[in-house]
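Fill in residues.
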């Protein structure tokens, strides 16, 4: 059979039903093979970066590998931001790029290029992939496909790339004689990481002796499919749970144990809880300065920190950890829950829980005094929460819109939230929402973007129109790059170069109408009923939300302050009353 046909057959057999990409000369054999397979859809985007983000959105919702493809040269290099995004956020994706014929590929490494659009994409992406290779021998296709799927999911997940020259794509192969990676010595070198019972016993001992425990739920909880196990643990022990940006959808926000988003842009009440804890159980979070502040020694300074992560390089890296455990989060929680059930542990954190509730009542993340005229973005997000169906998928872009949602959007059970975390790539939300839709067409999919982010991949509105994809696109428009504008206000004497000065945004409703998408405009809280009505229908639509400029993300941590002391600073007397532990000097 033709090798490109074999690739599509392999992908279908491994649960991939949609491949995202953009057509090009060096990938035509592969795309042609996709169209010949009635069980696999080729979703053509209008930019390769969008295809890469869509594959990631698909992977996150499907729980399987997402696949994107592009031609050689500019097609391949346009994938790079998406590849980096999936690498930093640990999302298993397979990127298949076309390449010039092997006999046209440069043999002398000193020359820049031989074949038209020839580019050494493998060397370029090696730092941001778990595995990348150009296939030069058609008999190795099964081996490399199986290895790519295995490596992408093994340990800490991430992207892989196969670069397939045109003559390899069109080669004839006998699929029954192909070498298997799973039978190889290389496969046997990978071993599963286990956890010793002694460590679980020690964790239980620490929980039992704690008075003020907190669980930090990071992206690893969702990646390891351990959300139900986390819920069981916190319900059983009544330990308060905070989340990082990537862990926001790991626990139902209506759960009484959930106390919000922590970190530099987190809620005051979450950060106060973390700061005053005496035991911190960190599940699958990297504990970067966005969680700890730049004053690393100030972070949870009187707490014993237990850090669990699949990646040993993330353990004990910046923070002095009391206990570091390399383990899959799911396996850790399975063993911990079983141990707690077996010994019938009883804990009493009632006083601590009441203190955390007091933090939360003092510092809500949205205005509690209703104003039907002024549209506050945090209040908008909170009200949007009440309109979400249980199967909703929310895809966030990067910028102030992302943080307002992280602070004030209250996710129901089975809601999913997609974020660009480590890369922080503007332009993520819209294509990721498209990928999420193809992973679960029955879900209600909502993309929340800023006026800057939507313009990064605005061309994908045509994909939505062409394919009749019922995505709701909420554009938070402050006619500025608000996050950096605020940064310039703080540190650059309000010189708004490139954020206000030299930047503006178009009329998005007119653009939406030009594409053929119903578009509406909201500028006051009293108009939220218009949004609610629009969310209930089954068509795509744009909802442009007009914000007064300047807008701010508050609270916000300044440099050289501990996470519990964010701007704008609260009254010092009140702050001191909130601190159980000694104030950081």
């Amino acid at each position: 059979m033709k090798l490109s046909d074999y690739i599509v057959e392999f992908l279908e057999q491994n649960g991939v039903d949609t491949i995202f990409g953009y057509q090009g000369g060096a990938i035509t054999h592969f795309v042609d093979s996709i169209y010949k397979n009635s069980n696999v859809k080729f979703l053509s985007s209008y930019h390769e970066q969008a295809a890469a983000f869509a594959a990631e959105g698909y992977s996150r919702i499907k729980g399987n590998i997402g696949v994107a493809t592009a031609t050689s040269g500019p097609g391949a290099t346009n994938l790079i931001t998406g590849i980096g995004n999936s690498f930093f956020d640990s999302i298993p994706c397979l990127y298949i790029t076309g390449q010039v014929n092997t006999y046209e590929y440069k043999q002398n490494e000193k020359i820049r290029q031989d074949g038209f659009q020839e580019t050494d994409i493998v060397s370029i992406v090696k730092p941001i992939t778990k595995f990348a290779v150009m296939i030069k021998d058609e008999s190795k296709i099964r081996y490399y496909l199986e290895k790519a799927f295995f490596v992408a999911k093994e340990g800490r997940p991430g992207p892989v790339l196969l670069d397939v020259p045109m003559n390899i794509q069109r080669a004839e192969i006998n699929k029954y004689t192909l070498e298997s990676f799973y039978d190889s010595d290389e496969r046997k070198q990978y071993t599963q990481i286990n956890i010793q019972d002694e460590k679980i016993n020690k964790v239980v001992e620490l929980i039992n002796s704690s008075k003020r425990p907190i669980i930090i739920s990071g992206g690893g909880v969702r990646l390891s499919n351990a959300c139900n196990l986390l819920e069981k643990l916190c319900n059983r022990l009544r330990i308060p749970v905070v989340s990082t940006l990537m862990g926001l959808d790991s626990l139902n926000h209506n759960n009484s144990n959930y106390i919000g988003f922590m970190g530099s842009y987190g809620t005051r009440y979450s950060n106060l809880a973390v700061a005053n804890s005496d035991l911190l159980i960190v599940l699958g979070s990297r504990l970067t300065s966005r969680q700890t502040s730049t004053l690393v020694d100030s972070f949870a300074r009187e707490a014993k920190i237990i850090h669990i992560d699949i990646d040993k390089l993330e353990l004990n890296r910046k923070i002095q950890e009391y206990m570091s455990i390399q383990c899959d989060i799911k396996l850790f929680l399975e063993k911990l829950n079983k141990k707690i059930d077996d010994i019938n542990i009883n804990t009493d954190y009632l006083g601590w829980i009441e203190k955390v509730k007091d933090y939360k009542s003092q510092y809500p993340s949205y205005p509690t005094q209703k104003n039907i005229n002024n549209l506050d973005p945090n209040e908008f997000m909170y009200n949007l929460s009440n309109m979400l169906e249980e199967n909703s998928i929310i895809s966030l872009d990067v910028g102030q819109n992302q943080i307002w949602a992280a602070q004030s959007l209250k996710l129901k059970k089975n809601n999913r939230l997609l974020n660009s975390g480590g890369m922080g790539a503007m332009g993520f939300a819209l294509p990721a929402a498209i990928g999420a839709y193809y992973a679960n067409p029955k879900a209600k999919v909502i993309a929340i973007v800023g006026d800057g982010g939507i313009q990064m991949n605005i061309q994908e509105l045509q994909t939505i129109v062409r394919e009749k994809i019922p995505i709701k696109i909420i554009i938070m428009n402050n006619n500025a790059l608000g996050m950096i504008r605020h940064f310039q206000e703080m540190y650059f004497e309000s010189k708004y170069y490139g954020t206000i000065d030299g930047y503006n945004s178009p009329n998005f409703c007119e653009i939406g109408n030009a594409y053929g998408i119903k578009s509406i405009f909201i500028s006051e809280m009293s108009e939220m009923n218009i949004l609610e009505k629009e969310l209930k229908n089954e068509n795509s639509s744009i909802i442009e939300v007009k914000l007064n400029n300047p807008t701010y993300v508050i609270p916000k941590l300044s440099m050289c302050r501990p996470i519990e002391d964010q701007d704008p600073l609260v009254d010092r007397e009140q702050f001191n009353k909130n601190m159980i532990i000694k104030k950081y000097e």
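The chain has a mean pLDDT of 95.
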